[in-house]
Amino acid sequence: MKKQNKVALITGASKGIGKAIATGLAEMGCQTVLIGRDSDDLKSVKEEIIRSGCSEPALFALDITDSEKVKETVAKIVEKFGRIEILVNNAGIHFNGTLDLPEPDFRKMLNTNLTAQFVMLQEVVPVMKNQKSGYIFNVASRSAKVGFTGSGAYCASKFGLLGLNESLYRELTPQGIKVTALCPAWVNTNMAQEAGTPLQPEEMIQPDDLFKTIRWLLELSPGTCVKEVVITNPKSL
């Protein structure tokens, strides 16, 4: 019997960290499922993956804050592939500000960086429980570990995701489902530039470093579990 490729679902897969993880997992032999808001960007990633000789990814263009759409999409993925072995909760947005941030922007960031991740997990975890296996990667931030000046609202959203990650780590690991939070400092992405990073592109963590971290985690023995990985660089210590 032909071995089935692992099905890997990646949110925010159209650019930056998500794109690097999606292309990397495809090169590892995974059947990738890409979720993002921009259908044109998703198609571009799809073409890049196909050109590299990997399996054609499935695409779903949607806003992850649309809970009903998320539920419908996960159901379609399970109907098509029958399983989900890997979930990369990567999609997120950033606004500068703490108490000076307008309340609508604060709610939007919480909805995108925390509530949407929660809903995605609600839909995917039962699939993994039924399989009795899976790996969940929650892409948080170093801002989930440190409350930075001028970025309190973003930190709040990421602290929340890290807390959710830790609870799931304790709940799901005994059931054969691994859970790890990735907490990088400045990553060389458009979001970092828009957020006002003081670093030059070559001084930052590269998006592919996040994929390499995931690859390392996936290759660890079944008896090994890692709650979180903090990734930084010399100028972000």
Give a quick set of tags describing it.
about 240 residues; alpha/beta; Rossmann fold; 7-stranded parallel sheet; 7 helices; 7 strands
Order of helices and strands: EHEHEHEHEHEHHE
What is the CATH homology-level superfamily?
NAD(P)-binding Rossmann-like Domain
Report mean pLDDT, rounded to a whole number.
96
Low-confidence stretches: none
- Cα distance, first to last residue? 50 Å
Helix/strand class: alpha/beta
| CATH-derived architecture | 3-Layer(aba) Sandwich
- The total strand number stands at 7
Helical content stands at 40-55%
**Computed Rg:** 17 Å
Main sheet properties: 7 strands, parallel
CATH class wording: Alpha Beta
In what order do the strands lie side by side in the largest sheet? 3-2-1-4-5-6-7
Number of helices: 7
The shape is: globular
Amount of beta strand: 15-25%
Write structural notes for this entry.
It is a single chain. The chain has seven helices and seven strands. 46% of the residues lie in helices and 16% in strands. The longest helix is centred in the middle third of the chain and has 29 residues, at 103-131. The protein has helices at 16-27, 39-51, 67-81, 103-131, 152-172, 190-195, 207-218; strands at 7-11, 31-36, 58-61, 86-89, 134-139, 177-184, 228-231. Strand 1 (7-11), helix 1 and strand 2 (31-36) form a beta-alpha-beta unit. The chain has 237 residues and is an alpha/beta fold. The protein has a seven-stranded parallel β-sheet with strand order 3-2-1-4-5-6-7, sandwiched between helices. The protein has one domain (7-236): 3-Layer(aba) Sandwich (Rossmann fold), CATH 3.40.50.720. The chain starts with 6 loop residues before the first strand and ends in a 6-residue tail after the last strand.
